[in-house]
Amino acid sequence: MKKFLCMTLMLLSVMVAKAQFEEGKFYVGGSLTGLDLSYSGADKFKLGVEAKAGYLFRDNLMALAQIGYKHIGDSEIGANSFNIGVGGRYYIIQNGLFLGVNATYEHANHFDDFKPGAEVGYAFFINKSVTIEPSVYYNPSFKNSDYSKVGLKIGIGIYLDPND
Fold first, then answer.
1. N or C: which end of the chain has fewer CB within 10 A?
2. Which residues of the chain fall short of a pLDDT of 70?
3. CA-CA distance, 128 to 159, in Å (whole number)?
4. What is the pTM of this model?
């Protein structure tokens, strides 16, 4: 009986998740990056925020626009940086696993850079349209490899269906 109940619950969750990444939905989201929230005299305080907007132009394929701001308490790099970019996501399986790519332009005090990037993440649905989205990302720098970054970000996403 327990096995039957588990199988039924799994089947129902797959059926509910199937419609989540369908063509025609809009997406808005925000995330925290640079989650090294500790502070020391050597490391300083680091925190970044990102906002994203997207559209699912085909089932499982999303086009994205993003804007971000980072505060780095290190005067060598520049205390603040701003980035803007475009990207896309492909939802591998209907339960939320996704691959993302992006291209961003980053501007800091004395540093401008174009950075391509990649991420792997998961969209955990907490209700019909709201997700918690942890992901791991890599953004290489072509100007200076010291500014390439591998990190973790945690976001919240909202999938909006204009027909609802």
1. N
2. 1-19, 34-45, 73-79
3. 8
4. 0.77
State the amino acid at position 48 in one-letter form: G
Bin 82: left if φ > 0, else alpha if -120 < ψ < 50, else beta. beta
Strand partners, 136: 120, 152
Q: How far apart are CA 129 and CA 49, in angstroms?
A: 22
Q: Say if residues 105 and 122 touch (Cβ distance below 8 Å).
A: no
- Dihedral sign of CA atoms 85, 90, 96, 98 in order: negative
Give alpha helix (H) positions in the chain.
2-18
Tokens of 91: 């939802």
Dump pLDDT digits (tens) for 35-67: 654 444 445 667 889 999 999 999 999 999 999
**CA dihedral defined by 94, 51, 155, 118, rounded to 10 degrees?**
60
